[in-house]
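Lab notebook, bench 4. Still working through the backlog of constructs that have no structural model yet. Next entry is a single chain of 235 residues. Request: give me the structure tokens for it.
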Amino acid sequence: MRRRTLLRALTGAMTGAALLALGGCGGGGDTTTATAATTGSSTASTTSVSAFSTQLASLPASPLSTEEANALLFMREEEKLARDVYLLLGTQWGQKVFSNIAASEQQHMDAVALLLTRYALPDPAAGMAAGTFSSAELQQLFNALTAQGQASLVAALTVGATIEDLDIKDLQTRLAQTDNADVQLVFNELMKGSRNHLRAFIGQLSTLGVGYTPQYISQAEFDAIVGSPMETGSL
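Model written out:
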């Protein structure tokens, strides 16, 4: 599995410094505090999620399979991973692309949380400090990516592109496993955001004269995404 291959390639680096740096961001679990720490748009963020909640409420709830329930739990934490990595790297490198996208990832976390509440599922991010995860796999990935991203600005932007590349692939996999309209709505909205985030990171890398080779989605899909304009959505 390519995720494990990436982990093996990255896990040579220790992460104590990464977790200390993230602690300095004041991030805190699943709350919106982390968003407010990186951007002044927390009110706008809450408004967007509130409007999306209304849209979601118009769709009927349907019984969840075990596979669908697990997908929601996993995506809640994968969006947290993205947010927490970007908080750390934004603090380290002072680049707005990280703080802006961290705020967006908080919205994505909140959108998945709406489904957790709707289906009375336990929240794996509840009470988890920034940089800590219920999933051992995601904890390892966070540790490896933050260590890599602290090496240089180019490395940090490459980490951002890698996270969005992976997020798109994971969302595609999980979309293929559900026929629930409400889950599809949330996952499609998250994937739209991830495509925009990928465009943003690739744009920053291009400005520095650096390329990126996709590790999860195909080269053809990657080219189609970065060659098309930013998309608008509810979040």
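Notes after review: The longest helix spans residues 66-93. The chain is about 70% helix and 0% strand. Flag for follow-up if needed.
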